[in-house]
Amino acid sequence: MENDREITAYINGHPIYRNFIESLPYNIKLKCRARALRKAGVLSEVIFWLQVHKGAFWKIDFDRQRIIGNYIVDFYVKTLGLIIEIDGSSHNDKEAYDQKREDYLISLGLRVYKISDSRIKHDLNNVMMELEKYIIEEFG
């Protein structure tokens, strides 16, 4: 522990401090839907998942299609209280809904990081470097 805060990982030598949010709400009625979304495998989510699962991204544990309250988020890093959303065509014409959802998640103390579907498909290396930088800035 450094400064009484637990280090959960290191990215490029930078300590990343734990930001675990206790007791997040969970709507069990969404369990089947979350499972179906995991199995459906949207291409950009699968590409991203291959970069981060099993600790491949700096030994940080990511959950896929995680239920938080009445919402299912694309990816969740429990130790950081960080949600990663991949915005593709399913988000078109849903700005008000997406904003309400994001405001709710932030009200729980979570942070939301958005990545566009097309950037995952066409600029993955830079996307991953930008995610590293974001995590260092927010949790370092």
TrEMBL record:
It comes from the Bacteria. Pfam families: DUF559. Residues 30-133 form the DUF559 domain. One of its GO terms (molecular function) is endonuclease activity. CDD domains: Endonuclease_DUF559. Keywords: Endonuclease, Hydrolase, Nuclease. InterPro entries: DUF559, Endonuclease_DUF559_bact, Restrct_endonuc-II-like. PANTHER family: BLL0828 PROTEIN. This is Endonuclease domain-containing protein. The lineage of its organism: Bacteria, Pseudomonadati, Bacteroidota, Flavobacteriia, Flavobacteriales.
